[in-house]
Design goal:
The chain is α+β, with helices and mostly antiparallel strands. It has two domains: about 90 residues, no CATH class; about 110 residues, no CATH class. Helix content is about 25%, strand content about 35%. The chain has five helices and twelve strands. The chain has a five-stranded antiparallel β-sheet, with helices on one face. The radius of gyration is 18 Å and the shape is globular. The termini are close together.
Length: about 220
């Protein structure tokens, strides 16, 4: 593990016995280790936004849940991380299937899903559109919550499983306009909609964290 200053895009990639995290802040690590969203973490800027490269390896293949526990242990040992759990009622958007039905591409065959499943913190921009590669709808919802103009957590309530390659044409302009256009693009192109709701959300409050000990 090493620290550095970098760009805002972070990446987590894992296989059955390895976890690699690139350009990550402490918040990114907590998100992945505990399976929570950014909005569920309070006090994550305690370390001043320093970024890290993290590599963890298991001697034998293990479920992803055990990789998450390995990272939790690393954060407690190296960052002296101490968390407190709270439940807060807050406004959210629920990602639901629109009345006319979902308009998604065919899900990727399992043989086409990379064994090195990678999730980036932000969508990639191609020809003015947002591209979400090899993503579940839960991951898609989480990325939507980070976009300008959304402004609240997005929870996947579609019930749709599988991995998809999704493109939102014109999304880069829609985000800049910040006038609700993005919501229309999601419904028109993907047959999904964002519905306002309130949800009791579990929050992780950082009580203590230190810069990590040297390797």
């Amino acid at each position: 593990m090493s620290g550095f200053e970098g760009t805002s895009r972070s990446k987590a990639e894992y296989t059955a016995n390895r976890l690699t995290m690139s350009n990550v802040e402490l918040m990114d690590c907590i998100e992945w280790a505990y399976g929570v969203r950014e909005d569920q973490i309070s006090g994550a800027n305690a370390l001043g936004g320093e970024r890290y490269e993290i590599f963890a390896k298991s001697a034998t293949p293990v479920p992803v849940s055990e990789l998450r526990i390995m990272l939790q242990d690393l954060l407690a040992e190296r960052f002296k991380l101490l968390l407190r759990r709270e439940t807060r009622l807050q406004p959210v958007y629920e990602l639901r299937v629109a009345p006319h039905g979902a308009r998604l591409p065919a899900p990727k065959a399992q043989t086409d899903v990379s064994m090195h499943h990678a999730a980036e913190s932000l969508p990639r921009v191609t020809d003015g559109g947002f591209v979400f590669t090899e993503t579940t709808l839960a991951e898609f919802a989480q990325k939507l919550s980070m976009l300008q103009g959304v402004g609240r957590p997005v929870l996947d309530r579609t019930g749709i499983q599988g991995f998809y390659d999704l493109t939102l044409k014109g999304a880069a302009t829609a985000v800049r306009l910040d006038d609700g256009t993005l919501f229309g693009l999601i419904e028109d192109q993907l047959g999904l909609r964002l519905v306002s709701a309130k949800e009791a959300v579990e929050t992780l409050v950082i009580q203590h964290a230190e810069k990590p000990t040297p390797n």
